[in-house]
Amino acid sequence: MTLPSHAQIVVIGGGIIGCSTAYHLARDHKADVLLLEQGQLTSGSTWHAAGLVGQLRASASITRVLKYSVELYKGLAAETGLDTGWKMTGCLRLATNEDRWTEYRRLATTARSFGMEMHLISPAEVKRMWPLMDVSDLVGASWLPTDGQASPSDITQSLAKGARMHGARIVENIRVTGFRMKGNRITHVETTDGAVACEKVVNCAGQWARQVGELAGINVPLQPVKHQYIITERIEGLSPDAATIRDPDRRTYFKEEVGGLVMGGYEPNPQPWTTGDVPDDWQFRLFDDDYDHFEQHMEQAIARVPALAHAGVKRMINGPESFTPDGNFILGPAPECANMSVGAGFNAFGIASGGGAGWVLAQWVVTGEAPLDLWAVDIRRFSDLHRDREWVKARTSEAYGKHYTIGFPHEEYESGRPRIVSPLYDRLKAQGAVFGSKLGWERPNWFAPPGVERRDVYAMGRQNWFPHVGEEHRHVREKAGVFDQSSFAKYEVSGPDAAAALEWICAASVSKPPGRLTYTQLLNTRGGIEADLTVARLADDLFYIVTGTGFRTHDLAWIRDHIPDGARASLRDVTEQWGTLSLMGPRARDVLAAATRADVSNAAFPFGHVREIEIAGVTLRALRITYVGELGWELHVPLAETGKVYDALMAAGAPHSIRPVGYRALESLRLEKGYRAWSSDITPNDTPFEAGLGRAVKMRSNAPFIGRTALEAAAGKPLTKRLVGFTIADPRAVLVGRETILRNGEPVGYLTSGGFGYTLQRSVGYGYVRNAAGVSDDFLLSGRYELLVASESYPAEIGLTPFFDPTGERVRA
Hints:
Number of helices: 18
């Protein structure tokens, strides 16, 4: 096919993701689509993928994406006439120890929460289903009957044919060499056969996505890693419908293929490929067989399936797959470019994800908004840190090595640390801090008392830090604590139209007089919550915005993309200019008054206000706000002076028993108070009214803002879901999120977050209760509730108001 001069949307890459995206763009949106493939379709990594299709993930939205893939693969052949090789064999996941079994009991609860069928079965049942397996070391297994396997090349060819049937054009053997840009917008795609004018570009170039993105100034932080598996000759007694097997404690997987087995694994010592550019001609190519490296898997596999010891190996596959630093794939609009989106880095589950990823990515490209809460895979979860390819290689290698390890709650990555530290790092370390990491920043999670080992000891039950975090929590409730929150993302919006621009972007009114601050959500056009942040008005034409560490790139991009065209308003990221010390607790005013000459009385400095004050000769921004439910201030200090101000606070606070406090106590404090966390309790799937935040929305004014139309359309109709709190008295219940909510014995939702409330001496969780006929107070309060925790049921009490200080008196003291 000859290259056209123009296309509405150009998709780069003819693997399963590119073909799925092109198919959905053409089928669902009738878009004018041109797909460009530098070799032949599937010639990158799709052709050598193993083809296992699992669906259950920790995110409800990503599980929905994978479930869509299965439904698509089931029916695609009927539309296109090309078979996909889909077989619903089901999947067995094996457990050989109690921690793994607890993980599966939790996963079974998650599956129920997400509407998926999953059973926990005995070793005897496993042996009956898979007679060739040695089950002598098993505790049990999970059984997901709707999982299966498919042929990666067949699916891709079927999707490509479907895309053509709906009007998409596909050109093979053509390489993208660059882009013509106008500002930060692509106007033409340059290729080896000439240029194509276009409106939008979708980068689905697989392991080449990194270098294709670089041509437009975009960072796609993926790392090709060598992944090996074998295909055996026929094995006597192996059923053609044998379930796929995941044996994570032995780091291996199996699937039946033409009477033999496909067997591979995820080793703790992976072999990353190049950090440079992948050769353009790496098509239908593999690395040399590496049996020395693969021996670790062979040994474990033969122990599990002894018949493998006598089976001939038909072929070894040793090919590169794209992996990412956190094990999640990469989707969405690149923050550096106005009209390039990305679909790449699928961590060897591109076949399972391909159908659904193409579906959501196509909608995202056309409408400019994700149709679901896709934060877990959003490209805007990364930052400039991820431009360092050596760092990405180290972290990605660690993530690959964790592919089959037990997923303990609160587990931290270790590679590439410490990367970014606040000026207080050494001081806090000397005070016993045990650090975690968020977007490269080292942050104190908890403080080990003298004589206590300074590290996390992971477990499925209460972990080693539990009592020490409890002491920190109580200290903030009774005295005063300081949190180093310097990693907060911080922006300034300035200019004559700054107020008008923010009024359009924010759901709450931010046009208060200078010296006031506003807690607000930023909404999408569906009324869903895209961000949750604080806006402080410093002057008529200057606003200071504070949001969560991990949301830095996302929230900046959202604000920038929604400042109206022509508005005289500029947006700057000032994160590294300001450190943040959060002084919280009933004695916080005593400490602050001893450290500054400013009047910090309630009359002079009420809640919801911002003032410039001076501590130790340093002028800083004091914001009277809290995320712990106590009297307190966020003190935003010029970064280089953070240590000086911290020392002054510690000296002034000594008579008031001040101490440093970590993020795990922050989490337990906010849970007791019922404060929402974006990406868990509130997401793009949830409106402020469903989340119990309707009071923060300026519906009573006539002011237009993004999302207003959707909220107005829903006004007056009963809410079909509402976020509420639950407590459990039984000390055995360890809440981590995704536990099923039962009302009168029937599932009505699941927890979005969970933990322990040390003041309440109960486990605390939040989740949406759903009911198609409406969720009124009467409906909520008339039910009898239980929470399914690791497949065990515990009685729970519901709360419609905060469990701690429901009237907010302590915050406004």
